[in-house]
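Exercise 7. Predict the joint structure of the components listed below.
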Amino acid sequence: MYLTQEEELMLNGEMGETLQMCMEMLVALGELYGAERLIDVKSVQISGVSYKTIGEAGLMWLSNLEGRVKVPSMLNPAGMDLQRWEEMGISHDFASKQLEIVRKFAEIGVEITCTCTPYYHHEIKMGDHLAWSESSAVCYANSVIGARTNREGGPSAIASALTGKTPLYGLHLDENRVPDVKIIVEGGLSGTDYGALGYVVGELICEMDKKIPIFTTTGNPTDDELKLLGASLAATGSVALYHVEGITPEAKQVSGLDEIVIESSEIKEMYGVDKEPDLVAFGCPHCSENELKEIERMLKGRKVKRETWIFASRKVIEDNKKVVESIEKSGVKVFADTCMVVSPLCENFSCILVNSGKAYRYVRTLCGLESILLPTQECIEWACRPSS
Amino acid sequence: MGMQTIKLKSVCRGKGKGRILKSPKPISFLGDIDPSTGMVSDPDNPCHGVSVKGKVLVFPHGRGSTVGSYVLYRMKVEDTAPIALVSITSEPIVVVGAIMARIPYLEGLDRDTFLKIPQNAYAIVNANEGWMKYEEVCGNVADVDDSGMC
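Solution:
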């Protein structure tokens, strides 16, 4: 692999142990994937922030890092709202470990964004090279924006943050961004339907060993709906890039692809309540301004009758104070910095009702709880219905 | 029979020597190994119940969650980690974990050599120069000197 003089110095340890380790990691990954060289990245998003995920080992490793980030670097959600953790029922032990992790990231210059929607924080453009980690954020950046990022692990994202570089391979290259399977969607979809579509298609193409689907649909999905679609595709199919004809910036006709037809009836089969939920949760991925406003509209000032939580980034919450206040008047709690998947809060509940295909999956597989998937409006109605 | 030498690709620099523990199954450091003892905890692995601590761990490739990288680091800190890693192919989780934990790591074993390497053989790994030597031995590790003879 070709390295510049400065990169060589880092690799040889002449710029300190941390940078040496970072460079070793980037070079080893670059060689593993056949990269010719390293490239500069515009921004970094680091996963592996929750103490629930990285534990004592992660904290120990972070504690030994030296130096400062070279490019804007953001954090994935932590295991709790960094300010309102007590209200969430988080233990003091967990909170003190979580705050220590966050403090360590702040020390090396990482912005404590704690969100899976970093694209609401730093504007990214088509063609930008990034080193992002969280699967739905990676999928959104690549597909909806047309920026370029592989799905980084936590440590390799940290290596990119401290060096400002990533190996040139995978989705950074044109030839690896071409669709390999066509999905024809029959019938109209809206909102949560797109998350359900991603769930179904992710599972299907995973079995077929395909990676980059291109969708043909008569619908006109919004950015929020594309966010839900990508999050589910990533969760069930490890998809990091998809295209939608006529909608996403890099969608191009490719002939001779295998085709799968998905009927809207197959999507609606995902919905069904077989158990009473004890928590209704929104914000996987973290809510946008429009999604918060939609929930406010659907609540119509009604009081919720069962525990209802919304997750969004601190910035989006602060930019929409009035909406959030109005939602909280209904008895809904709006938390920042965390989500239903990475927080240990799930231990306190048994069945979570969600409007996200991704959360529907991970509440089961990562938290070991029951989950129910319904469109947003129906989730709100459940929230307003008394427990039986 | 002298020591067999194999040229391999270095993933993480360093040197180490010890007995070989060969896992016929791919390994996830999150879930397949108990990090507090180093014991293989995957019930489907023939090495179940054997410790990787201080061993030259020979395995086909890594698998599983990216958190596995952090677990490998924790094992190094808690002194339950393998002394060196040798695999057929490499994937990012163990590559990154080995670099975080500074565990010498070689990859690129061909399948025949992998099958031929005897369980419990004595091995010297040099990931600075990119080679591994091994020899079948009798007795305990304590009886083996640097030349690998009984």
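Discussion. The beta strands of chain B are 4-7, 9-12, 15-22, 56-59, 84-87, 105-107, 122-126, 131-135.
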